[in-house]
Amino acid sequence: MPSPATLRQRAPRLAGAAVERARLTVVPRAETRAARLPFVSLVTVLLLGGVVGLLLFNTSMQQSAFTATSLEQRAAVLSARQESLGMKLEQLRDPQEVARRAQQLGMRVPAAPLFLDLSDGSVAGDPAGAQVLAPVLLEAKAPPLPAELAPATRVVQPPEGTLSGDRGNGNGNGEGRADDRADDRGDREGRGDGRGDAARSDRGGRNGEASSDRDRGGDRERRDDRGRSGRDR
Amino acid sequence: MRTSRYPRRGAPHLRLRIGFVLIAMVLSVFGARLVQLQGIDPGSYAAMAAAESMQDVVLPATRGDILDRNGEPLAESVDGLMVIADPALVNTDEAGNEVDRAPELAKLLATKLDVDYVTTLERLRRTDTRFQYLARAVPAADARAVVERARELGFDGLTTQRDPIRVYPAGDVAANVIGFLGTPLADGTPQPLAGFERTFDAELSGTDGSARYSVAAGQKIPLGEQTVVEAVDGRDLTTTLDRELQWYVQRVLRQTVYGANADSGVAVVMDSRTGEVLSLADFPTYDANDPLEADEADLGSRAMSDVYEPGSVQKVLTLGALVDAGRVTPRTRLTVPPSLQRQDRAIGDWFDHGTINLTLAGVLAKSSNIGTVLAADKFEGDELRDYLTAFGLGEPTGVGVRGESPGIVPAGSLWTSQTQDRVAFGQSVSVNALQMAAAINTVANGGVRVDPSLVRGRATADSGEEVGTETVTSRRVLSEDAARKTMLMMERVVDPEAGVAPGAQVPGYRVAGKTGTAQRANAECGCYDGTFTVSFAGFAPADDPRFTVYVVVQNPRNGGGGGSVAGPAFSKIMGYALRRYAVPPTSTKPSSLPVEW
Questions:
Q1: Segments forming the whole domain that contains residue B103
Q2: With contacts defined as CB-CB under 8 Å, which chain B residues touch A61?
Q3: DSSP string of chain A?
Q4: Do residue B491 and residue B517 come from a single domain?
């Protein structure tokens, strides 16, 4: 490798002018004046755009959140509605309900099925035996009345020689009159029971009658009435 | 700074010191506050801060449905709400004056919801409380509509809260097996009280989830804190029951019990091949939507919990075992005396007869106790007991029904020859109805006993036991030949001339069956009290069985026996099942085994 000293010695010989030209010199700085306005406006636009965009974005998010909430609520309402309609449908599809309607139309359950073979028209099974059965008993019997609501009938024989309608008009002695009154009460009680039964068997709830019974102060009727409202609850 | 340009400012050191002291004072106040907030009970402050804007919501898990084999719902959950009133708010008008608006509101609620006017009125007029339930378990749509309407009319103070509803669309159908839920707790947790609802509660109930998010003005804040743990819904439980068939069986059973003026009844329908229980009916039963209306004794499953002596139906097992052991054939000839003197007592038949000559088939067809005892003499040792155990008597069926009673087969030490005599015709042994149905089904299924099952797939009961069709095991009890011979003998039972139960026939089909009329043991006196258990067990078509049906009626008061009370019910149920599953008649010749010789 030739040393730099040798290069310098050789250079003038090659091309002195070229070397002179190739030498780096300090040049004065060029005073370039870039336009400031576009940059400033670009930054401003970017900033403003960012802020406004963010604001819009936020607003739209907020808006869509509201929409989502209201749609969710609507979905909940609709699914609740669907459920309650489904419930009604299930009530109609209840085997009991289907059977009730079928029996109303006169349909009956057969004792056994018959099979018709479509290829040769033959019938398998016992056509004579496969009769329809009696209608299916759909409803349970009403439960028996509790003992206190169905008291045994009290049969009271009026004492001989006295009429039950005779309310002691002064023709009997004191003791007889007492008996008489007791009998009369028994009789009235019996009638009250009869009325109570009628009201019970009528499930329509004849409130007017019940209340008029109550007005009459029949102890038993009042108990019956209470029993009924308990059931309603 | 040292120049006189700011002559009024004092010594800088002093100022600095004062400044530092002030800063230190402020900082120490901050420090003390920090210790107060973070050192002493930081949790409550954090909670208070969270409560300001965070909302915690429970995401309720939906309880699984209980379905029948075709996916029809036996029990399903519906979103429900309770309507709650604050009486004080109701009876205050907009200006804040006290007014009596209770009647108006009560009227509205009584017309729109299924509530009582007077009760509602009383609740709305209470002044000692600000919380009154007005209606519970109202379908969500209805409840919302009512509250909305009340608000429109200017009523204040009505709110709703979650109150899930469990609906049993078919009412009393399979209620004894399915069970019911009680009134949910305040937080909406259901209270399973009986049946499958309780046994499989862990599978049905699922796990509630939760959501937590920040809100502002009633709206979720987007990008706000939000965590959601999704609820895990309960698993559906599919049973092997057939809702339509179960309904029909229950109605037939009810009619039968009414007709015989009996105490109670049980009916079982099994798929002969798989052991799946298509119907397990009890009467008296209850409406699962309204269990409080029913007698508490009717809430369980009598088919599983009541044990009784099976009576003559047991003869099928005894004679089947004898044939399997090779001791007898259906044509074995027996001379049956009018009465048979045994060690401790005389054994008689249900009908008066002189000395008659019956074949083994005749013994079954005529249901002769004496003939059965004579045939059972051919057993050696504990053979009969082993057979009965193999038939599944004395051990629980394990289908997952609560309160199952396994019945009693006398222990080996108590197995005397007298016991064996009585067991042979169905006394001194007690069973539950499903056990007996499964035992008879062994004969129908070619001698292989299949465990009965009520749950499809598998499910874990609350006892930890796994039940279901996937856990079913089977074992051979009788040889195929013995089972077939037993079937042929049973077919003679429903023959109008040879047998005792022509009423059990299904027109067009071959039916094999056996009647049972057993005296009922009374726990109080420890004796037979003169009442009876009548039953009929059988299967059809006899030569290719598809269904095994067992009907039991407790204490009929019309003087009927197994053939006349349970037989017709069997026929109806079997006819319905064969039709529903489109099982054609086999059109082979019925059994013509001789019954006499």
A1: 57-238
A2: 222-223
A3: ---HHHHHHHHHHHHHHHHHHHS----PPP-----HHHHHHHHHHHHHHHHHHHHHHHHHHHHHHHHHHHHHHHHHHHHHHHHHHHHHHHHHH-HHHHHHHHHHTT---BSS--EE-TTT--EES-TTT-PBPPPP--SPPPPPPPGGGSPPPPP-PPPTT--TT----SSS-HHHHHHHHHHHHHHHHHHHHHHHHHHHH-TT--HHHHHHHHHTT-HHHHHHHHHHHHHH-
A4: yes
